Each structure stands twice: as structure tokens, then as C-alpha cells.
Amino acid sequence: MGDVVTIRDVARLAQVSVATVSRALNGQQNVASTVRERVLDAARELKYVPHHAARSLSSRRTRTIGVVLPDLHGEFFSELMRGIDVVAREHDLHLLVSSYHGHPDEQGTALRAMRGRVDGLLVLSPFVDSQALASELGQSQPAVLINSHLTGVGLGTLRIDNYGGARAMVAHLVERGFRRIAFVTGPKDNFDADERLRGYTDALSDLLPDAQPIVLQGAFDESSGHAAGHAILAMQPRPDAVFAANDMTALGVLFAFHQAGLRVPEDIAVAGFDDIPLARYVHPSLTTISVDIAELGGRALRTLLAGRENPTPPTQDATLIAPHLVARESTQRNADRPPGENLK
Fold it and tell me: What range(s) does the HTH lacI-type domain occupy (predicted)?
């Protein structure tokens, strides 16, 4: 077959005509769904790159970097893109951005659409099951993964130390005298969310061995935080602190407590994770685990560019980026209140 996979190779494997392959790969509607899937499976198996784009890729003249994200909504992703864009401008590069709306299947579609159009990929893939991602990343396409469970592929993985950050937050709350600490999780099957939950439960077990974990389901957004806040209001006894898996969730919790007339932190404390720009401007200002999100994006692109110039075999370990705790008003007890007083 040779080193370069052609459209004819895809047609042969899928047992269809070259014209059908072209229509299927270009998203035209006049292709039966079963045939389209067969073509896409063949293209994926062969790691086919369109010929016109392959010429650009081999000469590295596209001057374009692909960024594939689970979503574009929210301050985390806007900050991440801001950091990537700063480094892209420094190197006179363009960005081609795609969102797969949190669906693993659409992630594969987005990655395939990038092939041959970009000189390298930045991929944020939070799924715990990352085998589908591994199958999509070909050796011909330089890639750096962000906050992915997957390691040992591409040019490396940059990952926030979610576990260590969550442990640090629980330690902070315990030090402030809080004893009934609830946790609002992120989405199911999300690697970041799982690591933050693991950090919470392990720290609680170590620091408050007699305490029972209080875990509520969240989704990394305001609405799930708002719902969790109302569920916490109905608890008897009520938690005296809430640690939300990210700041957007924490803002939803804060709003629920405000609606109910609860004072934060006098009646109940609230903390988050990420340190989005809005965290310091809400009232009360939000205690959180600070991740330099823009720097994470910029560092990912710098890693990609350095790897393209000096490619090295992929490592099995991710590079962990250590976040740090930022204590603000939402967990600050009054100076004249002894720790633990509101536990009675």
C-alpha cells in the first residue's frame, strides 16, 4: 500500500467507490448512514489524511494549530483559549477551534476533521475511558493533551493536580474549624471530577476520620450547583461547609443560599476550584483552588511547538501542574467566633 494512505485505499477497505468516500468524508447528505460509518471506520483505521492537506502537513506550511475542547461555554474555556491565543500570536500562528459538546463520538469527528488542516493539536479530553482518543491520535499528527487520563501518546500530557488541590481545600476547611463538609461533584466519567472527589474523600478520611462524606452530584455548572445548594438547605443536620468541584458550581450554591437568606460564611461556608476571574468579584469573594488557566493553555502550546522542533518518544507520565489555595471571604470565620461554635 505504501507509506501514504490515499482515498483509493479507503475506498478499497470500505468496499465503496472513491466518489462515495469523498462524499462521506465531506459530510454530504446523499450517503446512507451505514455506508458513511463504514467509510469513517476505514478512514480511521488507515489514519487517512486528505491528499491536499497532507502536502501542507508535510511542509508544515498551514501555520495553524488545532484546538479540540469539550465545550466553549464558561470562563474556564475562555481563559484557556486566551492563554493559547497569546502564544499563538507570539509565533504568528492561526487557531482552528472545535467543540465536541462533551460527547466522545463527536470528539472523534472533530479530531478527524482536523487531520491535514493543522500542524499540531491541543486536545482537552476529560473522559475516564480514553481509549477512543488513543485510537484517533496518529503518529503523523503532533499532539499535546490537556487534563486527560491518557498518557504515553503524542508529545505529552499536561494535567492539573486535581487530587492535591482538593486535599488542600479540605485541609483549609478543617483548619478553619469546619467539621461537616459537603462536596458537590463534577460530571460522571470525568477525570478531573473523579480526581477532585478522590482528594476530598481521602483528605476527609485522614483529617476527620469520624466524619461521613456528604456527596452531591454536580455537573461543573451553575444550575447543578443551585440544585445542590437547595438539597443542602433541606439536610438535617445541615453541613457547615460546602466544597464545590469547580467555581461555576460554587456560584450556583452561593445563589441558592442567598435566596434562602443564609449568610456565607456566618451560617455556612462555600469554596470552589479553578479561580476563574469572577471568583474574586462575587459577594462574598470565593475561596478556591487557583489554577492559572491561561498559563495552562499557553504552556500546552509551547510544549507542542517545542516537541515539533525536537520530537522525543512519548513519556508514560503526565506533567502535573500544582494549583494553590486562595483564601477569601466565603470561608473566613469571624475573628470573635471560636472554631466549631456553629456545630452545636
Answer: 5-59
Q: Has residue 23 got a pLDDT over 50? A: yes
DSSP string, 6-38: -HHHHHHHHTS-HHHHHHHHTT-SSS-HHHHHH
pTM of the model: 0.74
For the chain, how many residues are written?
A: 344
Which structural domain, as residue segments, surrounds residue 216? 162-291+325-343
For the segment 135-143, the average pLDDT, to the nearest whole number, is 68
End-to-end CA distance of the chain: 76
Looking at the structure of the chain, the number of domains it has is 2
For the ranges 73-77, 105-109, 152-156, 340-344, the lowest mean pLDDT is seen at: 340-344
Kindly tell me the burial class for residue 166, based on how many C-beta atoms sit within 10 Å of its own C-beta (0-12, 13-18, 19 or more). buried
Contact 102, 73 (CB under 8 A): no
Chain centre to alpha carbon of residue 282: 23
Domain final residue, candidates 48, 63, 85: 48
CA pair distance 119, 140, nearest whole angstrom: 10
Q: CB of 65 within 8 A of CB of 118?
A: yes
Strand order across the beta sheet in which 64-69 lies = 94-99, 64-69, 120-124, 143-146, 157-160, 319-321
Which residue in the block uniquely carries the three cell numbers 508544515?
A: 60
The x, y and z cell numbers of residue 189, run together, are 466519567
Nearest-angstrom CA–CA distance, 122 and 269: 37
pLDDT in tens, 313-342: 555 567 888 999 999 999 997 643 444 443
Assess if residue 88 is contained within a domain: no
Report the CATH number at residue 276: 3.40.50.2300
> In whole angstroms, what is the distance from residue 278 CA to residue 151 CA?
32
pLDDT bucket at 189, cuts 50 / 70 / 90: confident
Residue 184 DSSP code: E
User: Distances from the Cα of 257 to the Cαs of 80, 190, 310, in angstroms?
Assistant: 30, 27, 53
Omega into 104 within 30° of 0, i.e. cis? no
Secondary structure class of 313 (helix, strand, coil): coil
Instruction: For residue 38, give the CATH number of its domain.
Output: 1.10.260.40
Q: Quick check: 100 and 110 in contact, CB under 8 A?
A: yes
